[in-house]
Model the fold of this input.
Amino acid sequence: MDEPAIKRPRTTGPTVHFKAMQLSWTSLALVGIDNHGKLSMLRISPSMGHTLDVNLALRHLLFLLEYCMVTGYDWWDILLHVQPAMVQSLVERLHEEYTRQKAALQQVLSTRILAMKASLCKLSPCTVTLVCDYHAKLFLIAISSTLKSLLRPHILNTPDKSPGDRLTEICAKITDVDIDKVMINLKTEEFVLDMNTLQALQQLLQWVGDFVLYLLASLPNQGAPLRPGHSFLRDGTSLGMLRELMVVIRIWGLLKPSCLPVYTATSDTQDSMSLLFRLLTKLWICCRDEGPTSEPDETLVDECCLLPSQLLIPSLDWLPVSDGLVSRLQPKQPLRLHFGKAPILPGSATTLQLDGLIRATGQPKIDHLRRLHLGAHPTEECKACTRCGCVTMLKSPNKTTAVKQWEQRWIKNCLCGGLWRRMPLSCP
Ligand SMILES: [Zn+2]
Ligand SMILES: [Zn+2]
Ligand SMILES: [Zn+2]
Done:
């Protein structure tokens, strides 16, 4: 054990002994309640106090992370032992192990590994901007699978593939930069949804539209210091997913124009979706899995440079600064906390760096999972993720089944796997 917190001299005060103790899943943390009702959490070193060679220590942590990835156990106690200098190599080696697995298993683990990487990256100032990217990737995967699950096969044919799979296949095959030419290859009757559902999806569709615009507008800055979203620019899988969603949104927009993402354009006649789809396709072709990779050509970069003069670039609401404790536990001093009181902690190096990049302190401005604005003084009760800081309303303002389905995903855990805590209502 490397935590001297409970070793107190016997002469002072009443004796303290633990009444109940419990080890965490991987035995790297011990929680105990003492006879005064105080709850203590102790960090237990994986080597039981023996000094390990760095490489051996890394391998040990990696093994435990993999164990949690496969079993589904929470890995918070492993994070207690990760030093900032270990983060990068742990993320890389975790990724290597993952790519070595069979495709079917990779599919199953695909979101858990993202959540794991996000929580690791949070521990080091060098990787903290990547947390937003992993989080956005989790969000994108969730939106994509939810929206695709809404498509229904036409009654007359019993297809061997779901409409969602066929959409993916067709979008991968038809590399045309013209959104309408990709669209005509699809059976549009599979996309018919009722009008209320389409309207209720608008905020999610808006996020997709905003995210595409944000990414393309940031392409010319590629060489600049790491900004959130950077890793998407060379990620063929995610860009392909966004491209598919643009096609779906285009079709839904034909059924109900008011569900389309709203863009603020300088010209009334501009077809913004078609412009963005063209640029997105060009960028996707540079890095998709199916073809040779290349650098984005100069015309594409030039066209992306022009975007801010054609469209208002949205400021994305990235993750708020989280007041989660794990990243502050690295200095090995004991920490005293009170139930129901927010800890007053010196900002760690990681938080400071994040502050420089992203706003978001104080009250949440947006429901991160519903993409609804909460207003300056939110009157709705919210819950926040204890791990990533994501905020969402406690009660659903929605009535349509499709959106209820979306919300069901987050009842127990956040997108990142973290647990929820209720947020106190702010007084204006
Ligand atoms: Zn987010
Ligand atoms: Zn979270
Ligand atoms: Zn979020």
Observations:
- Strands lie at 18-23, 29-34, 39-43, 366-367, 372-373, 382-385, 391-393, 420-422.
- The CA atoms of residues 41 and 236 lie 43 Å apart.
